[in-house]
Amino acid sequence: MSKIKIHDKYFEPFIPFEKIETAISKVAENINNDLEGRTPIFLVILNGSFMFAGDLLKKINLPCEVSFVKLASYVGTKSTEKVRQLIGFDEDIVGRTIVIVEDIIDSGITMENVLGQLDSMGAADVRIATLLFKPEAFQKSYDIDYIGLDIPNDFIVGYGLDYDSQGRNLKDIYKITDNN
Q1: What is the phi/psi pair of residue 61, to 5°?
Q2: Which of 106, 125, 150, 178 is catalytic?
Q3: What predicted TM-score, i.e. pTM, was given to this entire model?
Q4: How many other β-carbons are positioned within 10 Å of the β-carbon of residue 15?
Q5: Exposed, middle or buried: residue 179 (CB in 10 Å: 0-12, 13-18, 19+)?
Q6: Catalytic residue at 106?
Q7: How do residues 88-140 score in pLDDT, each as one tens digit?
């Protein structure tokens, strides 16, 4: 891992894949234990969660279903604090257990939007699994059931996370070193 440049910004190594993989194993083990005997629907929040979801679901040994929703709330390195739904969720979830799979929770605004939608659709039990959590940025009061890693409030890329559509394919996670 060495310093990289994406567009006009520089990023330095932050979390190596080995640490990510260990965190995912811990999340999967907790989900497997907590939801034993159930058949949850894993609701993957695109685009950022695709790598986390793929690696997480390989470690889930429960019968399950997988669905996807695509939301947008970022432009560049800043949250717009407005959530736009680009691809919707249309499964019948009345009485079902849902595990929302998210790459990162920072302010919590996007997740609050998803929780409201699932509640109005009749989900019986909704759990949240996130690879990364920024406690310093979190502005909401709901519980997050499964957290891979707590991180500081830095802008990061890699392992599914992007800066203006680039960097998602990086195996490791990098943090910004300058904001020019």
Answers
A1: -110, 25
A2: 106
A3: 0.89
A4: 21
A5: exposed
A6: yes
A7: 667 788 999 999 999 999 989 888 888 988 898 899 999 999 999 999 999 99
H-type alpha helices, the chain = 17-34, 50-58, 109-120
Whether the bond between 47 and the residue before it is cis, its omega within 30 degrees of 0, is yes
The radius of gyration of the chain's CA atoms, rounded to the nearest angstrom, is 16
| 114 C-beta neighbours (distance < 10 Å), count | 21
What distance in Å separates the CA atoms of residue 124 and residue 96, rounded to the nearest whole number? 5
Listed in sequence order, the residues at least 6 apart from 163 whose beta carbon sits closer than 8 Å to its beta carbon are: 6, 7, 9, 11, 76, 77, 155, 157, 176
- Which three-class secondary structure state does DSSP give residue 152? coil
CA distance 143 to 36: 20
The domains found in the chain, sorted by start residue, are: 17-154 (3.40.50.2020)
Measured CA to CA in angstroms, residue 110 lies from 35, 83, 156, 172 at distances of 24, 6, 17, 24
